[in-house]
Amino acid sequence: MMIIDKNLSAFAYAHGGPALTGTLKAEPSNFMVDEDLGFELAGTGEHVCLHIEKTNCNTTWLADQIAKLAKVKPFNVSFAGMKDRNAITRQWFSVYLPKRPEIDWQQLENDDIKLIEITQHNKKLRRGSLKQNHFKLVLRDIDGDRDRAETLFKTIQQNGLPNFVGPQRFGIDGSNLQSAELLFQGKIKPSRNKRSIYLSAVRSWLFNCVLDERVKQNLWNKALQGDAMMLVGSNSTFICETIDDAINQRIEAFDISPTGPLFGEGKSSVTNDALALENAVLADYEPFTAGLINAGLEQDRRSLRFRPSNLAWSYEGKDLLLSFTLPKGVYATSMLREVIRIIE
Predict the structure, then answer these.
(1) DSSP labels for 16-27?
(2) Mapped to the 3 state alphabet, what secondary structure does 243-291 carry?
């Protein structure tokens, strides 16, 4: 069994480490998320779309409840993104109902589930088909250096943060990574959904390890020769063969960002110094890389950094009130860790 530390605090900090301590999610209303698809639903089509506010329940469980009420297979219910369980979150679900039977969707409602809107669309909501998420957080029992925290928040507004994948991806005490090892060893045969979760956890862990090394070398927000640079706001990449003033200016302007590997089979797209750094890090995790190759996952890339928008903060006594917007796929924990050490 490979020995790894699944805690995000084990990874390097880009801005010197947290200035504050505090507690999070003392109650669901302390962590609120509002999904922004970034496009208008058509209003007509074979997919019924439900805008739902949920409290203390996870996205997949709610999707199953929707499928049961609609009397359809679970794969006919889809959503754009997973949302936190111990929170109040608003998100869209789509249900494929080509014959449009009459369904009393109000039956979904209870103390923890509120139906906000019902409409139709001409396509299913696919994973990742959202633009961003809006967050409102309350952190309790704040202690530490508030002046330094102020400086950190302003630095983050300007320079952004390392795009670490959050610890929830790895399961409680890294259980998803442990299950992935058993999967690669042929000791378990999980369901298709569980298998996908375990493989995603491994790819995310390897990405974090590469990003950790680049943070240690102060290269998370700089180009290396041979880097795959991603256009901010898209998944389009190009190889940076030459680092010149134009490249550096585009990085500084957050027009492009360096990327890290979402490992899989095939040849890596990066070359030269970027490839050498990634190979050196991944060499320590051969059971994971071999397992991903055998699983048939294709190589992909993820941005090494992000910059929150609409970041605002204020204090009410010992409470810190935070609001911000993050691009899809970015974890709120990756921002909080740089400023606040969360006390469990």
Answers:
(1) SS-SEEEEE-SS
(2) CCHHHHHHHHCCCEEEEEEECCECCCCCCHHHHHHHHHHHHHHHHHHHH
- How far, in Å, CA of 310 to CA of 203, rounded? 30
Whether 84 sits among the annotated catalytic residues: the reply is: yes
Place of tokens 């003033």: 245
Nearest in space to 132 (alpha carbons), one of 305, 306, 333: 306
- Distances in Å between the Cα of 257 and the Cα atoms of 227, 233, 245 are 9, 10, 15
What kind and span of H or E run contains 66? helix 59-70
- Give residue-wise pLDDT tens across range 122-178: 999 999 999 999 999 999 999 999 999 999 999 999 999 999 999 989 988 889 999
d(CA 6, CA 170): 7
From CA 77, how far away is CA 70, in angstroms rounded? 9
CA distance 77 to 67: 6
DSSP 312-343: EEEEETTEEEEEEEEETT--HHHHHHHHEEE-
Instruction: Specify the 3-state DSSP secondary structure of 156.
Output: helix
Residue with tokens 């019924």: 48
User: One-letter amino acid identity for 286?
Assistant: E
Q: Which of 5, 36, 84, 273 is catalytic?
A: 84
Residue 118 pairs in a beta bridge with 50
Q: Please tell me the distance from the alpha carbon of residue 110 to that of residue 112, in angstroms, as a whole number.
A: 5
Instruction: Give the span between the Cα atoms of 126 and 80, in whole angstroms.
Output: 5
What is residue 3's predicted lDDT score, i.e. its pLDDT? 47
**Distance between alpha carbon 261 and the CA centroid of its chain, in Å?**
15
* Residue 168 pLDDT: 87
Helix axes 175-184, 286-295, angle to 10 degrees: 70
Instruction: Say which residue, 101 or 5, is predicted with more confidence.
Output: 101
